[in-house]
Specification:
By secondary structure, the protein is of the alpha+beta class. It has one domain. The protein is about 25% helix and about 40% strand. The chain is built from 6 helices and 12 strands. Strands 7-8-9-10-11-1-2-3-4-5-6-12 form a 12-stranded mixed β-sheet. The longest helix has 19 residues.
């Protein structure tokens, strides 16, 4: 059998096997696109003492984050992404803020059949379940191999309503068509394949392990504790809380 036929046959078998996968566990590792030092050269030039203090803290935080596992569990219709409980040492509690994702959330739930995207977050002294809008992806004609998986690129814009107007942050995803589960970290879903690597807000999540059809059944429970709000309502609550905080500081 020629090499081309061998590769074609292998990809065909892989797609057939993955089309039979009904549930699984994806493990992601987290890193940072740029270090604190790279992002804060202005602070370094203006206040070297403060820069050294914060840089030492952030370096230690990155060491802790590198030890974490982020789990994406899924079945044919749902997925749930979260960070594993990791703080065995009380001294590392202070780094928890870097472990969790946007909105201060630790749970991201997605139902593809209902197009339902929920984020559970503990913020502003209360617990919320935030209804998030779906992501509008732009597929890019670029390819690369990540940890052995052939991937394609896609981008989306995340819109955030701040006190000074709307902010737009770009998220970059690399997904694998050979793994047809349309899920990913931090609630980024809806692509033609599993997101192998996601870069958003200076954070990079990369697949390190895939456990398809594990022996122990995957149980996905949608977040239900907390006040249910829309993304717009949550942003309004946050902006009001920040305004009140700033007013109290004057």
């Amino acid at each position: 059998m020629s090499n081309l036929k061998s590769i074609t046959f292998f990809l065909f078998i892989s797609n057939v096997l993955w089309s039979q996968v009904s549930e699984g566990i994806i493990t992601y590792k987290k890193s940072f696109e740029k270090s604190f030092a790279e992002l804060n050269q202005n602070l370094k030039n203006k206040d070297r003492e403060s820069f050294e203090k914060y840089n030492e803290f952030m370096n230690r935080a990155e060491e802790v984050v590198n030890l974490l596992d982020f789990k994406l569990i899924y079945n044919n219709t749902e997925s749930l992404f979260s960070v594993d409980d990791f703080v065995d040492n009380e001294a590392d509690q202070r780094f928890l803020g870097l472990a969790i994702g946007p909105l201060g959330a630790r749970i991201y739930y997605y139902n593809g059949m209902k197009n339902n995207y929920l984020v559970e977050t503990d913020a502003f002294g209360d617990l919320f379940v935030v209804e998030m809008p779906k992501h509008e992806w732009v597929l890019v004609n670029q390819q690369k191999v990540i940890n052995g998986y052939p991937c394609y690129k896609a981008n989306t814009l995340v819109k955030i309503q701040g006190r000074n107007g709307e902010l737009k942050k770009e998220a970059e995803a690399w997904y694998c068509n050979d793994l047809p589960q349309s899920y990913g970290p931090l609630g980024f879903n809806g692509l033609p394949g599993l997101i192998i690597q996601l870069t958003y807000n200076n954070e990079v999540y990369t697949v390190s392990r895939i456990d398809a059809n594990p022996k122990k059944p995957v149980k996905i429970v949608p977040p239900s504790k907390g006040k249910k709000v829309t993304k717009e309502e949550f942003e309004e609550i946050g902006n009001k809380a920040m305004s009140n905080f700033n007013s109290g500081m004057k």
